[in-house]
Amino acid sequence: MAAQVASDLSSVVAIGLMSGTPQDGVDVALIDTDGEIIAQLGPTAYRPYARAERTLLRRAAAPPRRRGSREPERAQRLAPARVETADEAGWSIVQAFAYLAVRSLRGLPITLPTTTGAPRPLVGGVLAEP
After folding, report:
1. pTM of the predicted structure, to 2 decimals
2. What order do you get walking across the sheet with 38-48 strand by strand?
3. Domain layout of the chain by residue ranges
4. Which letter does DSSP use for residue 67 in this model?
């Protein structure tokens, strides 16, 4: 089922969940936002994975082999840009992802030419419903 863009810009309390690259555990955070203004950064938590869970996740998420990467080229093109990390902004990375999820739900761009080299501001993400 395709997600509909939310037109009501009232505030949403979103839960962000993230298992990072090292697959050592899951981070969770709450954020209250309308997709543009952060009303409140809520609490955050972390739960480490058990050894068996880490093994299963690493097997399932084994990266495909790729030849060559355009990342160095992209980084050089964007070199003059000032990038602020989530930590520098006072956010946890999972709060940042929750914010981007709400922006995506609202049909607002989550990537901009000045920060990613995208050809225009782009909406991204997929709404996964149970």
Report:
1. 0.55
2. 12-18, 25-33, 38-48
3. 7-61+91-130
4. S
Contact 31, 43 (CB under 8 A): no
Look at residue 54 in the predicted model and tell me its pLDDT.
79
Residue 99, SS3 per DSSP? helix
Looking at residue 122, the DSSP 8-state letter turns out to be: B
pLDDT at 20: 67
Mean pLDDT, contiguous 10-residue spans, the chain (130 residues) = 50 81 80 88 88 78 57 57 72 84 87 77 76
pLDDT at 68: 54
Query: What's the rounded Cα separation, in Å, for the pair 129 and 126?
Result: 9
The CATH code for residues 7-61+91-130 is 3.30.420.40
CA 6 – CA 8 distance, rounded (Å): 6
Chain Cα centroid distance, residue 72: 21
Q: Which of 92, 82, 21, 29 is nearest to 57 (CA)?
A: 21
In 3D space, the residue among 18, 21, 15 whose CA is nearest the CA of residue 99 turns out to be 15
